[in-house]
Write a structure and sequence with these properties.
70% of the residues lie in helices and 0% in strands. Helix 2 runs antiparallel to helix 3 and helix 4 runs antiparallel to helix 5.
Length: 140
């Protein structure tokens, strides 16, 4: 089977890749909002975690979301470096969702709510797509 790289390069130009990258970053941040620990969808009890750990985790998630909106804006302005930032952010999303789905962190006795499982799986998949798109954007 032939390499799809040249085909993608012909079809996916940098402005289109930047727009898709920006859209996926905003999508990830919006998916993250209802997944705030201990709130709407993530109803698990985190009281057994040390406060510094819980607060650090929330700062990480908040920073990831805010940075996604900022980088999305720069991607829409067609700044080439935004692809590198989008790659880093997408890997950050993958790390947090894979850690939660894999029961690595945070580990609490409450089961993962089904709605959260579904949202995290969707977010993990779309972050993976953004990794591929960001890498392609960096190559152009």
């Amino acid at each position: 089977m032939a390499d799809a790289g040249p085909v993608l390069e012909g079809v996916m130009n940098q402005p289109l890749l930047a727009t898709v990258t920006a859209a996926l970053l905003v999508w990830e941040a919006l998916l993250l909002i209802p997944m705030v620990p201990g709130k709407l969808i993530d109803t698990r009890d985190f009281s057994q975690l040390p406060r510094w750990q819980f607060n650090s985790f929330n700062v990480y998630l908040t920073s990831l979301g805010i940075a996604s909106f900022v980088v999305a804006g720069f991607a829409m302005a067609n700044h080439h470096w935004a692809f590198v930032a989008a790659l880093v952010l997408s890997l950050g999303y993958i790390a947090v969702f894979a850690a939660d789905l894999g029961a690595v962190f945070p580990v609490v006795p409450d089961p993962l709510p089904v709605q959260l499982l579904v949202l995290e799986a969707i977010a993990l998949a779309s972050a993976g797509v953004n990794v591929v798109i960001s890498i392609q954007g960096m190559r152009l």
